[in-house]
Design brief:
35% of the residues lie in helices and 23% in strands. By secondary structure, it is α/β, with parallel strands linked by helices. Strands 8-7-6-9-12 form a five-stranded mixed β-sheet, with helices on both faces. Bound molecules: zinc ion. Zinc ion binds next to loops.
Length: 349
């Protein structure tokens, strides 16, 4: 944790009007506001929303940095996304994060309670330091992420791995609201994971828990960028589907493979069946290891679940008698922002 500055907010009610959060008690008595629309009733402004002092959630990935103001009851009231300037390394990425935070803090008129950050990479949840990040975020390894953002903003800041914060989002507002124990499997370019017990992320030593993508599925299988062979990520990720697609036809990619499977092309369907069987094998291992109430599956590949979800269910039934419950994540690419905000809410309780 890094609580480098005192809290600026006090949980008072506020409102957003045309992208700016204004003090509710000062400006909205008698149901009126003044400013960007002149004087008018609050219920006459379609852009006006009342809420408690918000949390700022930031989600840092290799392609985009997303940030949002999130109310105490879990709704995003203002959201911004910028491209991750990876070509500028750490300095450029920190500049964009500071800009986003300043923009949203200005819009909230200084009432933000604190900042939560989910970032790709291995993050120490206690210190908020980036222990390791791949070249998707160049220069990120070794950064004291939480303290740096706290110094730049004057707010308390906490940081965790982005799949961990996405899982917290699903706990708070998404598919896992009714569960105290579940696993999130994120099928994106790679495969990420998070394990939640008693409503809390199970971090393991230094945040190392939940690296589901590096469970070994195939003895002496494909070489993974972690140095092992046969990792789950090499068989059930977006990158894996790209590779599998190219084996079928050199000019196919994962999207083409999905389209062909949707059109019942036999080689594409066979590849999807193999994908589903391997994913099922991984999910069965997760089930036996942690005994979750449910395994929530998120990430970009869920957008094409129409072509593989029923095949995954079939593969699970074929491989095990265990009553494994699976379901798609509920928040899409907003889970990271909402979960990062929820991390702040939990820390400030
Ligand atoms: Zn690996």
């Amino acid at each position: 944790m890094d609580a480098g500055a005192s809290r600026s907010g006090s949980g008072e009610r506020g409102m957003v009007c045309c992208g700016r959060l204004r003090d509710y008690t000062a400006s909205a008595h008698n149901g009126e506001v003044s400013g960007c629309h002149g004087s008018q009733r609050t219920d006459g402004c379609m852009n006006t929303v009342k809420f408690e002092a918000p949390y700022l959630g930031i989600d840092i990935g290799g392609t985009g940095i997303k940030a949002g103001l999130v109310t105490a009851d879990g709704n995003i009231i203002l959201e911004r996304t910028v491209r991750t300037p990876i070509e500028e390394g750490r300095a450029g990425m920190m500049r964009e994060i500071s800009r986003l935070a300043a923009d949203l803090m200005e819009a909230s008129a200084g009432s933000v309670e604190g900042i939560g950050i989910g970032s790709a990479g291995l993050i120490d949840p206690d210190s908020g330091e980036v222990i390791y990040a791949t070249d998707n975020l160049p220069g990120w390894t070794g950064l004291s992420l939480a303290s740096s953002v706290s110094r730049a903003t004057g707010l308390p800041v906490w940081a965790d791995n982005d799949v961990h914060t996405a899982a917290l989002g699903e706990v708070w507002m998404g598919a896992a609201r009714d569960y105290h124990s579940f696993a999130l499997v994120a099928l994106g370019t790679g495969v990420g994971g998070a394990i939640v017990r008693n409503g809390q992320i199970s971090h393991g030593f230094g945040g190392r828990s939940g690296e589901i993508g590096h469970m070994i599925l195939e003895q002496d299988g494909l070489l993974c960028n972690c140095g092992q062979r046969g990792c789950m990520e090499q068989y059930v990720s977006g990158s894996a589907l790209n590779r599998i697609a190219r084996v079928i036809e050199p000019d196919w990619d994962s999207r083409r493979l999905i389209r062909e499977a949707q059109a019942s092309e036999s080689r594409a369907l066979q590849a999807i069946d193999q994908f589903a069987a391997r994913l099922a094998a991984g999910l069965i291992s997760i089930y036996h290891l942690i005994g979750p109430q449910s395994i929530v599956i998120g990430g970009g590949l869920v957008n094409s679940a129409d072509v593989w979800w029923s095949r995954l269910e079939h593969a699970l039934r074929r491989k095990t008698d265990m009553p494994i419950r699976i379901e798609p994540a509920g928040l899409g690419n907003r889970a990271g922002i909402i979960g990062a905000a929820y991390m702040v809410k939990c820390k400030l309780r």
